[in-house]
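are you around this afternoon, could really use another pair of eyes. what follows is a protein written twice so to speak, once as letters and once as structure tokens for the fold. i want to understand how the tokens follow from the sequence so walk me through it. anything you notice is useful, everything is just below.
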Amino acid sequence: MTAGGDASPQLTFTNHLGPDDVALALRADVASGLAAEPKRIPPKWFYDETGSELFDKITRLDEYYPTEAERSALQANADEIVALSGADTVLELGSGSSDKTRTLLDSFAKAGRLRGYVPFDVSGSALRAAAVELVRRYPSMRLDAVVGDFDRHLHLLPTTGRRLLAFLGGTIGNYEHGARSRLLRSIADTLRSGETFLLGTDLVKDADRLVSAYDDSAGVTAAFNKNVLAVVNRELRADFDLDSFDHVARWNADEEWIEMWLRSTAQQVVTVADLDLAVRFAEGEEMLTEISAKFRREGVESELAAVGLELIGWWTDPDGDYAISLSRKP
């Protein structure tokens, strides 16, 4: 029996998060973020139940291309990815519902090389919901679900099998340069010689199209962005007025990333009771909630090489909007 609960020969759950870990992390992030210049709240706090539902709606919007572009690239090239990887076990960071990953698991199963799957996510409920169907779909596969923070717990991942570590969804783009380098270094250190890393990256393209993807005409992304204020209100007894902030999305051409901000529409003071804070916002002041970096092949290859990973495969969707890369640790 692994830490955190119920197990069967094919299914185990391990929880590396204590009961107060998430609450303490939120307190720390909000306290430091509201004291920063400019103010900021990290994007990981978007995803309560409402935020997750809104993001699911975003992925189905006409303007938001990354989800389907990644799915298309994966579906067209999964067999080649499996063959090149030499793996028999898939580890996935930020697995969520494991929806797109089933394409990859199907190809491993077809090749007779699906030994195990390790979904790794901060949400235990998401892992449990996905695990039930995955065990039914792949009855001979061992599934070891891990609840944790991949900024802290990568070194605790199971080591069984020859592993492919997948990090899809373009989530790597939410990390600024230094943090991204540290995460990639941690991933490289987690892999053993010969093991592989599958990475999803959104590519640089027309700025207007990028901005539209993060500022849709229906206002779904705006609601998603503002929902982070509702999370802070609920969890830390704050009094953000969501109607007093506007959603802003802009392209930073120097950094080659999209930025999402919340702009105060008036001079106001927000209190965060659980942190004993009173925070002043000037009219027009903006608070950063997300960056989403966009990539070029040469940049991805360089960042992987910097942590000792060799690019061995590169695939895009038919329109060349999104890339999936495979690298190997020598």
The first strand starts at residue 11 and ends at 15. The radius of gyration is 20 Å. The chain has two domains: 11-19+64-203+295-328, 37-62+206-293. The CA atoms of residues 8 and 120 lie 18 Å apart.
